[in-house]
Amino acid sequence: MNDIKNPKYIVIRSLCVFAAVFLIANSFAHMVMLSHKNEAKLKAAYTAESTVRRIESQLNKYLSKTDVLKQVIESGYKIDDDQFNALAKFMVDDNHVIEAVELAKNGVVSQVYPVEGNEEAIGLNFFENKERKKNANIAKDSGEYTIAGPFELVQGGMGALLFDPIYTQNSDGSKNFWGFALLVINWDNFVDGLELDKLDESEYHYRIWKNDISTGNETVIAECKEESFKDALEVACDVPNDVWYFDI
Is the pTM of this model over 0.70? Predict the structure, then answer.
């Protein structure tokens, strides 16, 4: 009883109570902080995944334009230059995202629209071109479209190629590789249309990149103006025949 009234005992007991309360409060604050951090990571991961899916959706929208060409060729019809130009003219968009439409029978560019400005592409053999052959073979073997680039185009300027493989059917039902329908994409115009600046408005810093299939070098697909990244989260996103990485 006397110990309870002892000032020294009271001080020690008070310190013990304070320490216990401090530890509990600190633990709670740490748990809240971890919860907020995990929530932020989940939100960032969702933002990265949804952004890449939006990019892929936009690419599919443009790629769907080649379906008419594919269906005509797969049906066994031959497209002469006039027919090709008439179809391709409707595929080129007002936003100048599609720079050119090409047909490459057996992997060799034989038809291109518009011809003006794209003369250097005619006769290009994708299976022999050092920078393009890996993408061409992957598209051919997988049967899925493949994105090559962005890189310097042979006709000049930065762009990307969308290889869409075409197969005709033999009389026995087997498939025979015909070649490619290709879209030449103006990458800067394509990225502008994605409205990635909204990520900046949401106070996200981002960088989308991939390892180039041909060279193995890192290729930046899109990035914000901020050069330094703090607490960046890397999210790997599968796209047809490739993996894109989103640092956010």
Answer: yes
